[in-house]
Specification:
The chain is α+β, with helices and mostly antiparallel strands. It is 21% helix and 28% strand. It is built from five helices and nine strands, in the order H-H-H-H-E-E-H-E-E-E-E-E-E-E. It has a nine-stranded mixed sheet. A hairpin with an 8-residue loop joins strand 7 and strand 8.
């Protein structure tokens, strides 16, 4: 069995997706699919193999890496995945992500979460199947204009927040004109979970 076939089998067995595994490596969403289906790149970087071996709990050699004692390992962090309703593909509850990459995004990686995007309300900014990383808000964190994860009655979703400081109110906006927005609502009426700090676009 080739490393390419071994990786494909692992992804199928764990019911993951090529896009999700690509994002685990900090690559574009089509990276692993191109590697498996098109043979590009011809082989994975040793650092990527080490990350995949750790994620799938298999010897690096199975995926084309060096013997385990000499295989470089990255420091990783387990990031929770927030459930998004309406997703066709089963979701993981958490994902292992490279710590160094996360620290380039923010200085508080322990407060991060991954949120898959379901639906079209934030098109064209976010597409169905995209993923975002959010930085959970602390009690003393101030809101600013931008993209945030908002908790509704039964699900968490991304919306654009605009502040009206003169009236101490906020607007919770969709980017798609066919979906409703909430204008001029009281801040305490909206459960804002976290600020979007990274967007991973779905590549078809």
């Amino acid at each position: 069995m080739t490393p390419r076939q071994a990786l494909d089998d692992l992804i199928r067995e764990r019911e993951e997706t090529y896009a999700a595994v690509s994002r685990l490596l900090g690559r574009n969403s089509a990276y692993i699919q191109q590697y498996i289906k098109r043979g590009t790149p011809a082989r994975l970087d040793q650092s990527d193999i080490a990350q995949l071996a750790l994620h799938f709990d298999v010897p690096a050699k199975l995926l084309g890496g060096k013997e385990s004692p000499s295989t470089p390992r990255r420091s990783v962090i387990t990031v929770s995945v927030i459930e998004a309703k309406g997703m066709e593909i089963p979701q993981e509850r958490s994902r292992i992500v490279d710590e160094a990459w996360l620290r380039r995004l923010c200085n508080r990686p322990a407060g991060l979460a991954i949120l898959p995007i379901a639906g079209e309300a934030m098109q064209p900014t976010l597409q169905n199947g995209d993923e975002v990383i959010i930085q959970r808000l602390r009690s003393d964190d101030a809101l600013h204009d931008g993209l945030y994860a908002v908790r509704g009655s039964s699900e968490t979703f991304v919306r654009r927040i605009a502040l009206d400081p003169t009236k101490n109110r906020i607007s919770v906006l969709t980017d798609h004109p066919s979906y409703p927005s909430w204008n001029g609502v009281q801040r305490k009426a909206i459960n804002v979970v976290g600020r979007v700090i990274w967007i991973g676009s779905q590549v078809s």
